[in-house]
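User: Hi! I'm a student and our assignment asks us to look at how structure tokens line up with a sequence. Could you show me two examples?

Assistant: Happy to help. In each example below, the sequence comes first and the structure tokens follow. Example one:
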Amino acid sequence: MDNNPLKKKIGFYQENRFLIMLLMLFGLMLFHPLLSYIINISFLVNIITSFIFLSGIFAVSTKKYQPIIASLLALPVLVLMWASFFVDIGELELVKNLFAMLFMLHMVFLFLRHFFRQDKITREVIFGALAVYLLWGLMWTYGYSLLDHLLPGSFNYPDTFVRLEFDSLNYFSFVTMTTLGYGDISPVSAPARAMAMTQAITGQLYLAVLVAQLVGINIAQRLEKKD
């Protein structure tokens, strides 16, 4: 019997990697806007964000080149994110948002490939599918931030919202993806409208494909049990 504590921790992470990723994503998106009105938790948010990026690197890295690609995409984001505590990174914010968006897209691709290769419904499959949905929304958050830096005035903000604030654009991203359409933040420029429309369509398509995939796997499992 192997009592190596390090191997146990690694084994625990491997078994629960999608659940851990899902909890950190919820923590970033829900607790940050709720607690930011009470205390300054920028440091805590950066820690959670760093864990999301580091966890993503190893979550579905089944081949040697995958963590290398993920690391190259995550490194500029992590360096610039922590450097902003000490210096004004200025236009390098564009670089950070670009690499963050590409990293999220890379994670979504790896998670989806892993998900669609499964032939049994497990809790990790469900957690992974949910994590993809949140990563997709977060990817668009960074995309909107990048656009608003490159093309100021792309979004119309009410007086109660702060332009270029992560919470504001993250809120707009998920309101768009879930097609709630509150209309408090609205896309003004043509690129912003095109991005919002694309996100709304792909978000709904993903939910439809997700349900179809889970139903298909469930039917296959039932038929296999009968046989």
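Example two works the same way, sequence first and then tokens:
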Amino acid sequence: MTSSPEYGVYYERSDYIGVWRRVAIDFVDVFVAIAVSLSATIVLSLIISDDDRLLLATLIAWVAVWFGYFVLLKRSSFRTLGYILGRARIVNLQGTTPSIASLFLRLLFAMLGPLNLLFDLFWIPSDPCRQALRDKFAHTYVIRRFASPSATGRIGYMPYTILGGSFIFQEVRQSQQVEPPVAVTPS
């Protein structure tokens, strides 16, 4: 497989994780991140008595937990608990580990909260690669744990209009194998 930046990979449709499994993965991961963040808040409140310092320490702890869980752990070979239970992994358009910047961009979509879930419910089933909107922005796929690319293709730019805004996303263009025309001789 070619690993050049202008080429990417694509998978069989069944290798991309569907919307309901992705919702379950997100639910597990958000639950774990909140539980760890709340635990850190409780520990900090037992250690720090000054309210201003406690607020700052809590904010830093929450950011560290969410960044560590949704960016660093997700890109590691260990993966998050949601990805482990969902038998999924995340890759970039070349089929390799996404960058920290890509996963951080995906994490920023968490600030959209329930609106993100609504977009996913409508967007993922209609997308050929089952990418969520955050995946389009971050150039990532969520695929089955042991999926292998089915082929390579050139990365092209596709225009989208979303809620009145115009966006151009990079996408791997699937090569269309066209059979050469068969010469028919008159009989």
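Here is something you could point out in your write-up. The two ends are 45 Å apart (CA to CA).
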